[in-house]
What we know:
The longest helix has 19 residues. This protein has seven helices and ten strands. Helices cover about 40% and strands about 15% of the residues. Strands 1, 2, 3, 4, 8, 9 and 10 form a seven-stranded parallel sheet that branches. Strands 5-6-7 form a three-stranded antiparallel sheet, with no helix packed on it.
Amino acid sequence: MSKLLLTSIHDVSPRFEMKIEQLIAAIHGATGSSQFAMLVVPDHWDQAPIAADKGFQRKLRAWSDAGVEMFVHGWRHRDDAPQGFKGRHMTAGEGEFLNLDAAEATRRMRDGRALIEDIIGRPAAGFIAPAWLYGNGAQEALRTLDMPVAEDHFRVWRPGDGEVLAKGPVISWASRSRSRIASSLAFAGVARIALKPQRVVRVALHPGDTTVPALMTSIDRTLRSFAYSHTPSGYRGLQ
């Protein structure tokens, strides 16, 4: 069985259109492939509704037609009332699906999927919660809606039957502070060696990465390193 490289661009929204284009170019330059995923936010922080942006809709459809997998990535990517350790310390107020009840989680997940599928003209690849944080309500919604695939920091799974499709930490970078930049650069350097034996390696990119040249250099090195040993793939390769 071949080793797989799963690369994703998070927070895909009209709000970050130019930065998303930069990340696409970085993936193409490092891997030579259009086999990656986009995590689409229907209305990022209530400031960028995709439903009102026909130009961005056309781009989403074109990217999907080119082979990019489209995931539902929350609805607004914002948690107005962070609670608990995860809500307060593992994300900057963006754990949207951490504290929702099942009814509200189901509504947002269903509406997001309907919007994205209407735009791209094909089924969404699955659902990935903002900041990879799921509460009990979100977990129930995943099962209720029979989402094909979900993932968190350490695994990819099929919500319908709970089967784990891949294990291992996702490699991502943080741009919010100098300390986070330094720690993410260090982790990526270690991961380029430590995760080489893994059958599936996941690399997650965010729009904010483009604002720090050192992060973009690390991303390029990481993608090139794993593209040499792993085949760039969509999440469909896990099925």
